[in-house]
Amino acid sequence: MDMLRNAAVCVARYLSEEVGLDSKETETVRFSLEYLLGFLVNIGGVITIALGLGVVPYVLAAMLTSIPLRLVSGGAHCSTYLRCFMLGTVVMISIGKIAAMIGMLIPQALLLALTVFSVAAGVYAIYKWAPGDTPVKPIISPTKRETYKKISFIFIVVWTVAVSLGLIFSGRNAFLIASLILASIGGFWWQIFSITPVGYRFIAAMERLLDKYYIVLRTKKQQI
């Protein structure tokens, strides 16, 4: 991921010299480029793995639900792009695989009940904790916090309508639609979970586990 950071720095410096950006604008460009490049790499990596497992539609359904909601509701982050990529990949691939396996077995009534429960839980979580930020980049402005919260509620409304229409007009593709909806619900739950206190503790626990694994691995290499 250092390569992405270096590429973003080089492009930001080039634009600064060509356009005449000040230091603050240059830093904004660098951050935006680094985020965009990291995002594209993450998406490409997840889709590549999903393609190999034959679960691309379901992984995309989970991601297209989780990512937009995350942009406005925030949530816990790992300390590095690599760790975020690793955890996000495992979660999205797992959701897609599970949805592909059991989605067609779930009755429509149960899927509808699960959707209703998810919406209720999502509204509560957004009202209680969104937008979830981090100590590194806290959202200080009350106006911004209120705006992000409102957009998060709007997303839930749009998502509910989309899922409801999918259930109503599934027709001959009922099994496929059911699996896609289940994957979308999984992505929705993962994002909602990430803004809760339990979600933050879970990410912190994963960080400690990765730190411990890294230390053990480094020690073994030194011994060899």
How would you describe this protein?
With 224 residues, the protein is mainly α. The protein is 83% helix and 0% strand. It has helices spanning 2-20, 23-53, 56-73, 81-102, 108-129, 142-168, 174-194, 197-223. Helix 1 (2-20) packs antiparallel against helix 2 (23-53). The mean pLDDT is 86.
Beta-strand proportion: under 5%
**H/E element sequence:** HHHHHHHH
Q: Number of helical runs?
A: 8
Radius of gyration: 20 Å
User: What sort of overall outline do the alpha carbons produce when their principal axes are compared?
Assistant: globular
What's the oligomerization state? single chain
Helix content: over 70%
Q: Could you describe the largest sheet, including whether it forms a barrel? A: none
Report the uncertain regions.
none
How far from one another are the termini? Answer: 27 Å
Give a count of the beta strands, DSSP E runs of length 2 or more.
Answer: 0
Structural class of the helix and strand makeup?
mainly alpha
Mean pLDDT, nearest integer?
86
